[in-house]
Structures are given as structure tokens and as C-alpha cells.
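Why do we care about 3D structure at all? Because function follows from shape, and shape follows, mostly, from sequence. That is the central idea of this module. The next example makes it concrete: a single protein chain, its amino acid sequence, and then its structure expressed as C-alpha cells.
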Amino acid sequence: MSNTPMAANPLTRAVLEIDEYASGLGWDQPARLFALVDTSRLRTQEPALAAQLGLEEESTQTGLTPIEQDEIPAGRPLDDFLGTIAWPAAVVGCALTVERLMLPPSAEAQVPEGLGEKKLAKWVAQHPDRQEVRMTVAVLRDGTRESALRLREKDSPKEVLTGPDLVPGLAEALSATFAD
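And the structure:
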């Protein structure tokens, strides 16, 4: 049984389930991509897969089921990779979990001007106020979005922050994978 707290909406539950899964793998993990499928439809159309995922009971796991996809190619920029994705009609949404270094807003004024991407990443990695964060972002075909943020220093399910607009750029990139 999952330790994921019950959330009011299925997308939030899916994001928290993915966050819990990623947490169980530990830190310093590669980005992971998930298809989100309607659980009821999965039970009907793919009963063997539903049974393999432990979803054969009608009373359990209603809502969305995350299905992890193949590994994201190492060394390939995430935005380039996301630009190559097209989802089949059975996929109602997608999610991505990724780890990054973040700085508090107060550090923005300290960023040296003219740094390229690699030098900026190095500068952030050496900043004393940096925070390691795991971001899980999910979007549905209709544009609905949800995200969860977990700081490494506060690595507890009770310390996970959720909200639809926590990582807007990543949500937009995921939404673009559903564009025609």
C-alpha cells in the first residue's frame, strides 16, 4: 500500500505517487518520464497489464495510473528530447521527474552577467545558498497541470510542496508533447 496522502484530484494523486516512487530510488537519479493513463480504461482495455500493475480491483486505484517510459537518453538536452515525443490517444497526460539545483530569489541579483549555460551551472553548483530539488511535473491533454517539489535537505513526504504553477516552463514543455 502506498504512503501517498490522499489528494482531492487524480492528477495531484498521480504526481504524489510519482514523487514517492522517485523518493524510494534515492537522490542523484536521471530524469524519468511517465505516461498517465485512465485507470478504469486501462483495466478494460489492457486487463493483463492492469493485473501486472496490481489494478485489477475496481475499488482500488481509480483515477490516473503513471507508467514509466524508457530511459531518457543521457547527454541529450531535456527540451530537445521532449520535442521528439508524440503520445498515443490512450495517454491522457504525462509526467516528468527531474533533479535540479535551485537558488533562492535573493540570489538572483548576485548572478554574474554574461555567463554561458555551462559557467552558470557551475556558478549555481558552487553557490552557498543552493538547494537540491526534485521536481515532478504532470500535465493532461486538456492543459491541466500539477507539480510537486521536494528539497533534498527536507526529504520527507510531509515536506513536499504541490501546486499547478511551481515549474511553469517544464509544464509548458510537457504540454507541447500533446500538440498536433
